[in-house]
Amino acid sequence: MNLTKHVKKYAMETIGFDLVGVASAADPLFSEAPKGHGPCDWLPQAATVVVGGVKVITEILDTTPSPIYSKHYDQMNVWLSQAGYNLCRFLQSLGFKALWTTETDPYEYYGAQLLAGALRYTPSFSHLRAAVAAGLGVKGKIGLVLTPQFGPRQRWISIITSAQLIADPPYSGELCLDRIKPGRCNRCIDICKKEQSGALKPWPAEGGVDMLACTWATLRSQGLACGLCIKACPVGRGKSSNKTKLPLK
After folding, report:
1. Whole-angstrom distance, CA of residue 73 vs CA of residue 83
2. How many C-beta atoms lie closer than 10 Å to residue 248's C-beta?
3. Nearest to 133 by CA among 158, 151, 153
4. 52 and 80 in contact (C-beta within 8 Å)?
5. I need a labelling partner for 6 at 20 to 30 A (CA). Which of 81, 160, 190, 229 fits?
């Protein structure tokens, strides 16, 4: 078994990721990242980025905004952090350098950028950019990554490594209904305007998600994670409950 298949098999069958892809650290998408936020900024020896995704449980998402979904959101972040650590350790055991990037930056990190005069939030590392570079999906109307398996209903983590893995080809085709036929779908933006903060705008021309407005909406919702936009999206709807490989202990 070649190295790439070996790593992917471990990531999916032993760790339990629902989605796994590989991007070259030299992918042009990463050149769009601000200075200090690309793969080689974090690991100078970076050759590839392994991107793992875990699905959101639809039945829980359907309760949002609720304490149940908010807990599920936190649960997925904890799981991704541990999964990233485990895959990092696995790559190191094979003799490669590796580090995992945080699944979600602290709100304080975002707040510090605003206080420094930033016009918009820059994540420490863009999992969305990495997921697209790894061929796992495409960016939709508001900039979230849509996959054929789950639409926007997954969360991501990225592992930067010196391992010379085989990069996956870009996803071919379009998934966002509004990009397939402009004017066909505006459900994500409409639900945010109606029920929450109006933090969503078409991406990239108008900036996608206004993280400041989205953050304030979370605070106004008694601190609960929202998720209404991914709940409303019809892409992949019904597939999130499909059987996937269970994480091994």
Report:
1. 15
2. 8
3. 158
4. yes
5. 81
**Ranges of the chain whose pLDDT falls below 50:** 240-243, 246-249
pLDDT for 247? 44
Backbone torsions φ then ψ of 222, nearest 5 degrees: 60, 35
Taking alpha carbons only, the member of 187, 240, 235, 242 closest to residue 62 is 240
Give the pLDDT of residue 84. Answer: 98
184-to-2, 152, 199, 247 alpha-carbon distances in Å: 44, 17, 20, 38
Amino acid at 19: L
Q: Where are the beta strands (DSSP E) in the chain?
A: 19-24, 48-55, 98-100, 138-139, 145-146, 154-161
Which residue shows structure tokens 């601000």?
34
Residue 2: predicted pLDDT = 95
The continuous run of DSSP H or E covering 91 comes out as helix 67-93
Please check whether residue 228 is in contact with residue 64, taking contact to mean a CB–CB distance below 8 angstroms. yes
What token pair was written down for 230? 């991914």
Which amino acid type is present at position 143?
Answer: G
**How far apart, in whole angstroms, are the C-alpha atoms of residue 138 and residue 241?**
21
Around Cβ 169, how many Cβ atoms within 10 Å? Answer: 9
Q: What is the DSSP letter of 205?
A: T
pLDDT at site 207: 57
Question: What DSSP letter does each residue of 95-139 carry, written as one string?
Answer: T--EEE--SS--HHHHHHHHHTT-SS---SS-HHHHHHHTTS-EE
Rounded Cα distance, 194 and 61, in Å: 18
pLDDT at 40: 97
